[in-house]
């Protein structure tokens, strides 16, 4: 080997080492600076495979694993003087570098030979295993089992791969033997306990010996231990766990046959390494092999609308059992995301289905149609989106699940009858039936409903309509009112229309044209086959039941069917005729009649109904030209009064029934919003009005939508301006011929002939036996009699004696000295005096009463309860008042009749303000400009107060009490403001009386405080600025330190790199 070549290799080695050291430095530097400057999240490793991998490493730590370690060796020649001549002498040195050996390559005939140092088999195994673990990602799990005489779970399964590497690096060689069987058993148990059900599950078994434990003596090989190891491998294979095996050494050292069998049993591979140098490559190949297994995955969905398709918003189901069959058998529950994955599958044929999942019943499978998937996997193929859909019947999902006991949907309503009154019932919370029938109709509501004969708006008898809304008097046939004893009343006395001239229901001889109307047609169902789900509905427009027996249904193409059995269509009711009578096959209908031999075409067809050779009704639909042409829904007639052979009078159903198609078989049709007719509550075309079902009732639109229904006196219904309606127009029975209540005037009873008495114009007398006693008489003093009936004897008389002077008139009650004693934020105390004993109360509100209103509140919003105890000093408290509100009031007293005082007013106190607000207020008051403004306002308020004192009580003098005294009156200052102004005046007086020196001193102190406050604030700002500057200085110092560390690290790395280069090349 040439020197130039040797030196070139050395230089390349040096550069390589410098690059390694510099890379390490950059890594450390970058990590440190990233942590210092920016909070960067640590990136997760990429996953090993597309599907998760759970792997347990099984490593032999028996004594033989320490073998293979050797120092580097150099055999080299040097020419030396031997005895009497020069010759080439061989030398051997250990633990030297290859460069050192190259430098001693002195002769082409005697080249130096270098043998690199070798690791022990254990070190090679640890290094290769760690490199495998480094390839695992966050979705993968790793664990470690070691074995010698015994097996040991060193580290359990987790995605903490650094911890696994630490466990690997901590392995040490023992003096034990080789227990392969228990090692496989330990790894199998860990996978069974802690593996991800959706992961590929594998073991990597590495050994340099033969099985000789737990049954053998620990040396050589024991056949029982070989069989035991293969038995445990079969247990793992039954769980679909893969075992990759690695034999370290030659076949004399290891049992390659056993290791191959273990790999074959579990569908994995066997590898052999003679000395451990190629172990890293073997582990890399295993990493690739692990990812070559196939998988089948999917999710489980709740098919909310039962359509067999995954729709937006449909949730996945957790803990649903999915079963794998075919070339591998296992089961799995869907995870927290509602999904599953069978991983680690070999090429082959598989069947995927659902378990019974009894905890989720009831449910129906909606996809796949055959309830399972048959899948053929190629090697390494991943079959995805193998999804399952199930429908769970839920009350409230807008699907009536007849098979699961539902008869209606949550919040559905339908018409019902409650004791003869029309009402509405709502589907119950379980969708298993209907709730209580609720109605707004009742006797006394002014409208004749249900079985009522009349309704005069009350429940009083003896006014022509009884308290049970039955006519009082003889019924009148033909007045369109169903009265007692009548079977019907159609508003006329003509026979032959279902109600005869005596108002008895006529027996039908057969249907006439217009009596039966084809009302709804389902020609193209979607939930079931056409041959099973076709049907149509007829409606009876008359007041009598009609039997369609022997009637013929047909079309224009010759298809006919004769109704051979009785088919009763109830009065104003429906009958449904179906092609198939089985409810489970026809879409969920209970038919009234099942026909045959007649097919409803999906395009154009006819339904013709003939009875007794008379065509009763005909509908000819036309494939969507003018009629609707729905699929999965019936077409419906907007109203039975319309011509049903005109396509524009039809529309499409919107309500679902049975198996999910749309329609209303046997019940009232949905509303056709685009079809105009009288009775749809929409005023259209030439209609003047349309009140729907109320048409024809007084106050509503009439029956042909041409105007309002007029009142009719004598029909037993209280209408319009009628005071009564007793069902006739005869006077003298309490309700006259114009429906006005007849009132008999009561007779005046006046026993003492003074004009006062019971039912008399002047009023009632308190003593009808004495003509001198009545409300119009004057009180006579000293007779002990209440002459004027005012409840007081000798009122206004001085009956205690004491002097003459003549009699004089009675003294009237009057109020004086009204006063507002005080008030708070929500209360006030008011007092007053009366000249004689009297009761007490107060009327009050936030608005004045001008002019005075009616008794008892006199126009105010509120009144206190009257204090009935009579006194001459009165005090009443008001509470629950609003804070900061102005109130107006009058005091009221009564001796023999109530009188009231002047209107008073006050303002309740404001709520307490916060300390900060009070401080702000004090600061504001110290401003000179505002002090001047306050002085002006106080001056204006003093002037206003003087004006009020001069004019106060002017309005009160006009009050009935004649009282001119009182507190603050309507024009006066509000009491709250007056008190506040008085306080301000007192403060000003005190300020004026204070010496100028004191004022000056006070002002100087205030200015000093303000300056101190400003100074403190400035100082606080300076401190804050100083803190910010210190913080910036700290950051600059920190950055400078990092840059110095960077420079020092570069110099240190270069120095030690150079020293290492010199050392490895034998230079000091």
Account of the 3D structure:
- By secondary structure, the chain is an alpha+beta fold.
- Among the domains are: 1-40 and 1041-1068; 121-290, Rossmann fold (3-Layer(aba) Sandwich); 294-391, Immunoglobulin-like, CATH 2.60.40; 516-674, Immunoglobulin-like (Sandwich); 815-907, Immunoglobulins (Immunoglobulin-like), CATH 2.60.40.
- The longest helix has 69 residues, at 996-1064.
- The radius of gyration is 55 Å and the shape is elongated.
- The two termini are 24 Å apart.
> Percentage of helical residues?
10-25%
**Count of individual helical segments:** 13
Going by helix content, strand content and strand pairing, the class is alpha+beta
CATH homologous superfamily title of one domain: von Willebrand factor, type A domain
**Rg measurement, Å:** 55 Å
Task: Say how many strands there are.
Answer: 39
Look up the CATH topology of one domain: Rossmann fold
Beta-sheet strand percentage?
15-25%
Give me the CATH architecture of one domain, please.
3-Layer(aba) Sandwich
- Unreliable spans are 1-45, 798-809, 913-1024
Q: Average pLDDT across residues? A: 80
Shape category: elongated
- CATH class of one domain equals Alpha Beta
Distance between the terminal alpha carbons, to the nearest Å?
Answer: 24 Å
Largest sheet: 7 strands, antiparallel
Layout of helices and strands:
Layout lengths: L2 H35 L15 E8 L12 E10 L2 E10 L3 H5 L10 E3 L5 H13 L7 E7 L3 E8 L2 H9 L10 H15 L5 E8 L15 H16 L3 E7 L7 H10 L4 E4 L5 H12 L3 E9 L18 E6 L3 E4 L5 E7 L2 E7 L9 E4 L4 E6 L4 E2 L4 E4 L21 E6 L2 E6 L89 E7 L7 H4 L1 E6 L5 E2 L4 E3 L5 E3 L5 E2 L4 E5 L14 E2 L9 E8 L2 E9 L12 E3 L12 E3 L162 E9 L4 E18 L16 E2 L3 E12 L7 E9 L3 E3 L3 E4 L7 H12 L1 H24 L23 H19 L2 H69 L4
Parallel strand pairs: 1-5, 1-7, 7-8, 8-9, 10-17, 10-18, 27-28
Antiparallel strand pairs: 2-3, 2-4, 5-6, 10-13, 11-12, 11-14, 14-16, 15-18, 19-20, 21-22, 21-31, 22-27, 23-26, 24-25, 24-29, 29-30, 31-32, 33-34, 34-35, 34-36, 34-37, 37-38, 37-39
Helix pairs in contact: 1-13, 3-4, 3-8, 5-6, 6-7, 11-12
